[in-house]
Structure formats: structure tokens, C-alpha cells
Amino acid sequence: FVPRINNGEVEFFGINKSKIDSVVVDANFSTICINNNDDFYCILAILNSNWTKFILEDICTKFGGGALKVEAIHLKKLFYPKFDKEQLEILNKIGKKMARMSRNHHIEKSADNIILKALLGSASHKIDETVDILEKKLIEMINERKLLWK
Q1: Sequence-distant (≥ 6) Cβ neighbours of residue 56 within 8 angstroms
Q2: Strand pairing category for 2-3 and 61-62
């Protein structure tokens, strides 16, 4: 689930349904249900990547006070490359780390590396440089959104 109104960076949270009986999420959040527990951590990593946050900063509604409104329609517009089995296994491990730790930019960069490798294919020698540019642009976009309303 993800808060509909985000003051800073968008952050996705997850509850593994296999570990609880039921979950209620109110209307202040958008939810994504994952039926296959094997995909849970992989999707958590992908959604918390800077790639996802960058897209959401671009397509979501900017509100007063620097808030970003993330609606279900925005989540449906997210796009990702096709991942191979090895990339999905790595994303699964990254998602497990994300679930255990508080926010960590190094882990988010790891997810970005996999996403961009799948996206860029043979041009993957530029991955580290591209990840750094992506992170800088994301920070600029968030800061710009906050400045718009001051």
C-alpha cells in the first residue's frame, strides 16, 4: 500500500498476507494485492525503486505545501521492462532487505541497477552513471515540488 498524499518521497509499504488473517486499509491509501507470495518482495523492491518514484514524481498531482497525490490511476500507468529469472531473484532479495531495514538509498540503487539493466540491455555499461543521474533528478524534482508551494 502507498499513501495517497506524500509530503516527501513516495514510499510503498507491504504486509505479507500469509502472516496475518486480514488487513483493512482505509481510503487514504492505494493498495495493490499480490496473490503470489513469491512475488511479494520482488514487487516491494520494484515499487520502492528510484525508477518508480521518478515516474510518480512526473505523472502524479502536485498539491499545495509540496505534497504529491498518488492515485490508483497513476499506479496503473507505471511501466517496467521485462525481467529475466535471475533479475527477478535479485529483486526478491533486495525486497527482503527493504522489508527488514529502514529507508536505505544503497538498497534502492540496487533495485534501480536491475531495472535499468533490463531496460537498457546491451547498453548496460552505463548503468552506474544512469542510476546516479536518476537519483539526482529525483531529488531535484522533489525539492522543486516543495519550492513551488512555499
Answers
A1: 10, 68, 70, 74, 78
A2: unpaired
Alpha-carbon gap, residue 4 to 129, rounded angstroms: 31
Closest CA to 30 of 57, 69, 65: 69
SS3 120: helix
Q: Residue 53 belongs to what H/E stretch? A: helix 50-59
Query: In the predicted model, what is the mean pLDDT of the chain?
Result: 85
pLDDT number for residue 150: 47
Of residues 62 and 75, more confidence is placed in: 75
Which pTM value belongs to this model? 0.83
Residue listed under C-alpha cell 497513476: 74
What distance, in Å, lies between the first and last C-alpha atoms of the chain? 29
Taking the C-alpha atoms of residue 2 and residue 150, their distance in angstroms, rounded to an integer, is 25
Number of C-alpha atoms within 13 angstroms, CB side, residue 54? 22
Condensed to tens digits (0 to 9), the pLDDT of residues 48-67 reads 999 999 999 999 988 877 88
